[in-house]
TrEMBL record:
It comes from Streptomyces microflavus. Its cofactor is pyridoxal 5'-phosphate. The keyword Cell wall biogenesis/degradation does not apply. The lineage of its organism: Bacteria, Bacillati, Actinomycetota, Actinomycetes, Kitasatosporales. InterPro entries: Aminotransferase_I/II_large (IPR004839), AspAT/PAT-like (IPR050596), PyrdxlP-dep_Trfase (IPR015424), PyrdxlP-dep_Trfase_major (IPR015421), PyrdxlP-dep_Trfase_small (IPR015422). This is Aminotransferase class I/II-fold pyridoxal phosphate-dependent enzyme.
Amino acid sequence: EPAVSPALHAPERTVVTTGLTKNLALGGWRTGVARLPDSELGRALHTRLVAVASQIWSSPPAPVQTAAAWAFGEPPEVTERVAASRRLHEKVVRAVAARFTAVGAELAPVAATCYLYPDFEPLREHLAEAHGVHGGDGLAALLSERYGVGVLPATAFGEPGRPLRIRAATSHFYGETDERRTAALEAADPLALPWIRGSVDRVGEVLADLTGAPVPALAPHL
């Protein structure tokens, strides 16, 4: 279901923040905006925010400001690109998620994102006995050193203890050149592209070797 902003339910006390980097994946175009409520609280926050901001941040470069003003107007070129990116993320991330759950990891349903947060808690005993892994840090190190697979442990995001959760991303599966990334974005079935299919298959092979489970098959139409 579509995400619903709290600003729709409590507009008088909700501040909405965004930026080009997170909103549109424009790394390096460092600018952000805050939409304050049109209320007494919002006006008080505005005064304080401007006072603090003037001592911390400088103005973004003029080209960045121009790009931000255009992009935040949501022209068709931007909305169509976002929709195509969402479709690509959804198809590929679901295929990779299926590989994790097939070997016994727990994973909440994912959609329209390139990030996954699988939990290997059901496999804790096996990972400890077979690999000497007792937490996400050790699991991330093992995946990197033995298989060349880069992930981040849950502790990198502030989780306490020794959770067997990691964060993985699929964005690098889309291609190493502009031509391949464009082809992935425009493909009706990106999983049919050999470089994406190969990356997803590699995930399945690594997870099978890690857990001792059979290599999971990739469904033709995820």
